[in-house]
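Priority: low. Protein: Transcriptional repressor NrdR. Input follows.
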Amino acid sequence: MRCPYCANPESKVVDSRPSDEGASIRRRRECLVCHKRFTTYETMESLPLVVIKKDGSRQTFDKSKLLNGMLRACEKRPVSFDTLEAIANEIEQTLQNALDREVSSTHIGEMVMERLRGVDEVAYVRFASVYREFKDISSFMDELDKLIREK
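Result:
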């Protein structure tokens, strides 16, 4: 860290503590040349995650859209909001940890369906029917048959 007084690149950390409710770290530093003290803040860099939609357009990832889609699928089902929020957080964390900054909406939809299948089968089928755009009753029945066979 370059000293703001003499521009020396060498300094030592005198004190370090969390700031902004743990979102950043405040560090008191002392220049090794002029011995003046200054404060720096360290924050985590978050790169935006871009979702590539089915039509090829791009949008910034929005966890609330993901959560709203799952809420609609779980309407009148015994699935708690906390469970859905945990799924949304887990998916977001998985996507953030991936090296790709762009992800297809298809991949996100598959991740949601995989998790909903284990939570509530009716919610899974509801989500799949919208996500996979079932055109008729036979495609709906194919998905149900697949679900029954897996049991």
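Helices lie at 63-73, 81-97, 105-119, 121-131, 137-150. Residues 24 and 43 are 5 Å apart (CA to CA).
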